[in-house]
Amino acid sequence: MEQPIYTTRAHVFQIDPTTKKNWVPASKQAVTVSYFYDSTRNSYRIISVDGTKVIINSTITPNMTFTKTSQKFGQWADSRANTVFGLGFASEQQLTKFAEKFQEVKEQAKLARDKSQEKVETLSNHSQSESGRDTPSTNQASSINGTDDEKISHVGPEAALLQSENERLKSAVEQSNTNAKKWETELQTLRENNARLVDALQESSANVESWKKQLSACKEESDTLRNKIAELEAQCNEANQERQKNAQLTVRVKELEAELQEKEQELENLRKQAEIIPQLMSECESITSKLQAAETRNKELEGRIEGLQLDIDDSRQKQGNMKIELKKLMDVLDGKLDELQEFRQGLSKLGADN
């Protein structure tokens, strides 16, 4: 009878029979996975049951290999079931214990197979020796005693026992040969299945490496995209700052344009005032000529000098005041023109900077 020798819990998977690449969950949750030993057949099996469904029934042979593909996942190929089983454990310690037990059970299965082969070879050799030893005695008895009927009448109980033993050994040898051919055929089938499963396992390992490379490439691409996003965010911040500066400069330009319009209005007023200056100058010249004529008349009319002297003094005073005001006005106009020139230069420089 089979007895459990080791039990653990794990998530069970099987390789997809179509693609031979993807894993298909055989259980929705962690289930019990046990090693069983059959003392009558001297064999070991891994059995797992999910409710009433048997999801693992794998007889361990010496050719099997348990492979750790990650810290918590392992797999092995079963050529008889023509599939690959995978187990996902809750911790690395459970995976290590299961792998060690698998190796131990595989060694025991190898020893059991070697003992069985030794028994078969011993039985075959013994049968061949008995057959070779009994055949001459039989021929000798036939040649000595004559016919078979005469032989049967003369043979003793020991010869009959040897003959029956010989027949039994012959049947055993024939059965052994038949079993050997059957085992050779099964062994060949197992080797072919094992080769296919090894190819599937190697392909699965290659796919795992490819997936790892793809994951690494995706991580690098993700890091690159993160860096680009950070750079774009920095550029956006700089652009926002430039926009704020441009908005401030636009406001400043509008203010300067308003000031320029005011200055131009003042300049226009000054130009209008400057247009009056020639009239004033002509009036001054006319007054001067009149003053000279008056002075000439004053020479002739000395009597009127005293009366007109006051008028002349007033006229001179007004003329002096007018000249002073005209000079001040000219100075103010020159200053305004200089300020307007400087303002235009500053405005041109500001426009070039913007």
TrEMBL record:
Signal sequence extent:
none
Q: Which SMART domains match?
A: WH1 (SM00461)
InterPro entries xrefs: Homer (IPR045027), Homer_EVH1 (IPR044100), PH-like_dom_sf (IPR011993), WH1/EVH1_dom (IPR000697)
Question: Does Transcription show up as a keyword for this record?
Answer: no
Q: Which residues form a coiled coil?
A: 159-318
Any Gene Ontology biological process: G protein-coupled glutamate receptor signaling pathway
Q: By its UniProt entry, which CDD domains does this protein fall under?
A: EVH1_Homer_Vesl
Residues of the region (Disordered) are 109-152
The principal location of this protein is: cytoplasm
Q: Where is the composition biased (Polar residues)?
A: 122-146
Q: Keyword set for this entry?
A: Coiled coil, Cytoplasm, Synapse
Name of the featured protein: Homer protein homolog 2 isoform X2
This chain is encoded by the gene named homer2
